[in-house]
Structure formats: C-alpha cells, structure tokens
Design a protein that fits this description.
alpha/beta; Rossmann fold; 2 domains; 8 strands; globular
Length: 284
C-alpha cells in the first residue's frame, strides 16, 4: 500500500504529536476505528451522547485536534464526531484520495453509515469544507445543515498567491530548511505575530514526515448542487489570501439554493485567531 508517510517512524512521530495536542485541548474524547471502502478511519467523539450529532471535518495537511478545539464551546450541546481525513496526517489509513472527483464524498458517506448517522449537521473548515461540498454533490440528502468556514471548494487560490506566497517559499524551505523559511511558508495564513508555536511544531513535523497534499478539492458547481437543499452558512475570512472573502461570498450566493448567509469574519486571516472563536461559535 502506498502511504503518505516517508517512513514508519514518521507515522509514529505524527501519532505521538496528535496525542500531545489532543491532550492540550482539554477536551474529553472517545476514539473509534471504523471501516470505509477506502480504508480504516479514526474518529474522535466528544460532547453529550444524547446531543444532536455534529460532524466536524478538519483542515488539510494538519491533524484533527488543530480544528477540534475551535468548536469546544459547541460540545456542551452537540455530540461531535470528528474523523481524521484519509490521506492527511492522523490515525486513519494513510492512503490519499483524489480531490478531483467525489471520492471524499463517498468516504464521508461511508463514515456516516458506520457511525449510524442518517442526516447530521456538518461543520467543516478549509480543506474539510471542500470535502463537505463534495459530499453535498454526491449525497445531498445526507446533510441536514452545514457550516463551511474559510472554505475550499468554492473558489481557487489566486495564482499569484499560489506561486509567490506558497510555492516559492515552500521550494526554498525544501532546499534549505530553517525556522525563518518555515515562518515564510506559513505567513500567508496568519496576521498576528508570533505564529503560535504549536502550529510551527505540527507544520515542521508534517513537512519532515509526510508527503503533503498539494491540491485542494475541485470547486463545486451549481449543477452539482441542484439537489442539495440543506441550509448552509458560509464564513469567509476578511484577510484570507488563499480563498479571498469577497469571491467566496459572491460564489456562495451563486451555487447554494438555501444559503442562510455568506458572511465575512472581520479581522481574520485564513487561520482563525483564538480571540475570534467565541463569536464564531455563537454564530454557528
């Protein structure tokens, strides 16, 4: 089996880092392994067992706990199911799916089936939002309501950002790794200084031990979503250089039939600052 990890020791390092950062969240979780057609999937469960189900899809090329703590306040009410995305760092099968078709939508349907979730709410960020939209295209009636935050899958990364802000700094880092070059790779996703040390620790480990996913999920079309009628809230970030807020808001209005709102998170880059999370949780 082709794996996303450079070597088995790297996978073990990522798993240890996963456990470390999960413990740091202070969230009480249960862990399950479930089968899907593409491979075993690890799922974190949190919140009251009797609460309404909320599926959380994390960002790409990072570990699940990074996104899990964003919605910690919602866990007083909702039963949260947070799967580790296949093909990304975590404890699921280390096999990559194609972001160009509905493979990730098929995978999520398998996850819902294994968890016996007929029609949960889904909250997703960044790469995970692209998976949410692939699922909305593939199995539109499996989602009762949705939140897509700083979403991929609606607009493409501007080519100038892709080339000058992401690709060139990444090549420079690969040729001569250093902390300064790592900071330059991450800078387009942050405004505040310094960049959090936990983010640097995770990113450094991923770059060292994982074949990173270079592609975002393919942009969804209005035709693909013709049967997706669930209410959806889209939250773009004002200073997001990957998915510019105005373009995201405009496109959301074009493709969704039951758009509750497409709003801009004021003062936020792509990586949501902690100070903004209480208001975002309240809105969701």
């Amino acid at each position: 089996m082709k794996t996303i990890y450079h070597h088995p020791q790297g996978e073990a390092i990522i798993h240890a880092l996963y456990d470390k950062h999960l413990a740091r969240t202070g969230i009480t979780t249960q862990s399950r392994m479930i089968p899907t057609r593409f491979g075993q999937t690890h799922v974190l469960l949190a919140g009251p067992e009797s609460g309404p189900p909320l599926v959380l899809l994390h960002g790409g090329n990072t570990i699940n706990p990074t996104t899990l703590w964003w919605i910690k306040p919602l866990m007083t009410k909702y039963r949260v199911y947070a799967p580790d995305t296949l093909g990304h760092p975590g404890k699921s099968a280390p096999v990559r799916l194609s972001p160009r078709d509905n493979s990730y939508g098929q995978w999520l349907v398998d996850v819902l089936d294994a968890l016996q979730l007929s029609q949960p709410a889904v909250m997703a960020g960044s790469y995970g939002a692209g998976i949410l939209l692939r699922t909305a295209a593939f199995a539109p009636r499996r989602i009762s309501k949705a939140v897509a935050m700083i979403p991929s899958g609606l607009v493409s990364i501007p080519w100038r950002t892709m080339f000058f802000d992401l690709l060139v700094p990444l090549i420079a880092y690969r040729l001569a790794p250093s902390r300064a070059r790592l900071l330059k790779v991450l800078r387009p996703m942050f405004l505040e200084n310094p960049i959090p040390e936990d983010v640097l620790e995770i990113t450094l480990a991923v770059f060292q031990h994982v074949h990173v996913e270079p592609e975002m999920p393919h942009n969804v079309t209005k035709a693909e979503l013709q049967n997706f009628t669930a209410p959806i809230l889209v939250l773009a970030a004002e200073y997001d250089r990957l998915f510019p807020a105005k373009r995201v808001v405009e496109r959301a209005g074009q493709v969704f039939q039951n758009l509750v709102a497409a709003e801009i998170i004021s003062g936020s880059p792509h990586f949501i600052p902690e100070r903004l999370l209480p208001a975002i949780n309240a809105r969701m």
